[in-house]
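step=encode ok
step=design start
structure_in=
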């Protein structure tokens, strides 16, 4: 039987959306194929990449604040339901 991490990775790998998992040090620890295609990185390139590489410079300070806030007081959020998300492709666009 697969352990919980392997089972979660298997589910996220086939998720219908680009999906990243980021650890408490703000490093990407998982990216499914749709995230790789969306951002232009391979899964090997994503491994331990700082998530800041994917965030436009003008948004990094706010994003760091929200990530820290979430880690200190986790709560369910609806990211993307009413907010347009922005990210940086490997090419910088």
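sequence_out=
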């Amino acid at each position: 039987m697969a352990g919980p991490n392997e089972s979660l990775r298997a589910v996220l790998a086939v998720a219908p959306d680009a999906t990243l998992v980021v650890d408490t040090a703000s490093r990407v620890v998982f990216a499914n194929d749709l995230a790789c295609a969306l951002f232009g990185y391979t899964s090997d390139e994503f491994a331990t990449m700082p998530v800041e590489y994917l965030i436009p410079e003008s948004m990094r300070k706010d994003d760091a604040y929200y990530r820290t806030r979430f880690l200190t007081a986790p709560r369910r959020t609806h990211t993307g339901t009413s907010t347009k998300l922005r990210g940086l492709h490997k090419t910088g666009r």
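step=design ok
step=annotate ok -> The first strand starts at residue 20 and ends at 22.
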